[in-house]
Amino acid sequence: MLTYWIALSQIHGVGPVNQKKLLKHFQHPEAIFHATKEALNESGINPTICKAVIEAQTSEHIKKAEKLYEQTLQKEINILTINAPLYPEVAKEYKEAPILLYYRGTLTNELPGIAIN
Question: What pTM was estimated for this model as a whole?
C-alpha cells in the first residue's frame, strides 16, 4: 500500500538515509508504523529518529498520507518506490536518494534519464 510509503517519506526529521535504514530492517513501511520502540531501536536508528517515528505512528499521520495519495491520483501523478524495477539504478547509488519519486507520464526501461522539476 503506497499510503505507508508516503507516510514514511513524510515523517518530519527522518530523511532518506534513515528511511532506507528502517526499510532494510523492517522490509516494508507498514511494519515500521506497527513497530515497538524496542524494535525501532534494534534497527540502528538514533534516539531522535526513533522518537520521530513513534510520534508519527498515529492515525492522523496515516490519514494525511492517505489524503496526499488521493491527491496524487486525482492529479494523475504516479509514485515510484525505491524498490520498484523502474526506479533509476543510478539514483539508487546515492545515499540521499529519495524512497519515492513522483512523476507524470510513462516511464520505461529505455529512458536515458529523468528530470526533476
Answer: 0.90
